[in-house]
Amino acid sequence: MTRPSTGGRIEVICGCMYSGKTEELIRRMRQVMIARQSCRIFTPRMDTRYSVGHIASHTGAKLEAEPVNSMQEIIRKSDDVHVIAIDELHFLEDDPTAVLIGCQSLADRGLRVIIAGLDQNYRAEPFPGMMQLMAVAEQVDKLYAICVHCGAYATRSQRLINGSPAPADAATLLVGGLELYEARCRSCYEPAR
Ligand code: ADP
Ligand code: ZN
């Protein structure tokens, strides 16, 4: 006989910029709210692109969220809920192993943990925290944007400075929108040098 599920699980929504990660996270959390499950939505304090206290999709959809600095803070604030969501996980300035252990412990306690974040940085290298969570997640969804050059499915986030690829030695984390990043496919992506 199958063992009944406690409901604890990790779901990862990943992809490049503009692939609809926040849109999908908001969709899932709206359903959680319709089901009247207790939940909390967190966003790394560093991601202040739109407004503090919200997560916002490029579609314009928005939901209230609590800015946090660390996984410890998320754990402290997740005592009394069934579902937690973390948007833009790659921006959480915490040790990737601490993030992994924290998410695992919440799921082991029976929580549904929904994570959205970039799978690769602007150099097309995997983000370690996301990589580890994908390995242990019950569900991983990789979303695609549209390459602004050729219209194919885009998997990479091209960082631009005055229209040219950003150098390889620039900061890995840099908050920005259309003026800084383009969605590109593998063949149109220009590697950072
Ligand atoms: P992410 O969180 O992955 O950055 P968002 O949920 O914020 O994505 O935004 C997704 C939306 O961005 C799409 O539904 C679309 O309206 C818009 N968009 C802008 N540029 C692109 C693009 N190049 N490819 C696909 N969608 C894009
Ligand atoms: Zn392309």
Indicate the topology.
Layout: E1 9-15, H1 21-34, E2 39-44, E3 54-56, E4 62-64, E5 66-68, H2 71-76, E6 83-86, H3 96-108, E7 112-118, H4 128-136, E8 139-143, E9 145-146, E10 153-154, E11 156-161, E12 164-165, E13 181-184
Parallel strand pairs: 1-7, 1-8, 2-5, 2-6, 6-7
Antiparallel strand pairs: 3-4, 9-10, 11-12, 11-13
Helix pairs in contact: 3-4
Zinc ion (ZN) is lined by residues 147, 149-150, 152, 184-185, 187-188.
Produce a short descriptive summary.
The protein is an alpha/beta fold. It has helices at residues 21-34, 71-76, 96-108, 128-136, and strands spanning 9-15, 39-44, 54-56, 62-64, 66-68, 83-86, 112-118, 139-143, 145-146, 153-154, 156-161, 164-165, 181-184. The protein has a single domain (9-144), classed as Rossmann fold (3-Layer(aba) Sandwich).
What does this 3D model show about the protein?
With 193 residues, this protein is α/β, with parallel strands linked by helices. It has one domain (9-144): Rossmann fold (3-Layer(aba) Sandwich), CATH 3.40.50.300. The protein has four helices and 13 strands. The chain is globular. The protein starts with 8 loop residues before the first strand and ends in a 9-residue tail after the last strand. The site of adenosine-5'-diphosphate has 15 residues, from helix 1 and strand 9.
Q: What labels would you give this structure?
A:
three-stranded antiparallel sheet; binds zinc ion; alpha/beta; 193 residues; six-stranded parallel sheet; globular; binds adenosine-5'-diphosphate; single chain; Rossmann fold
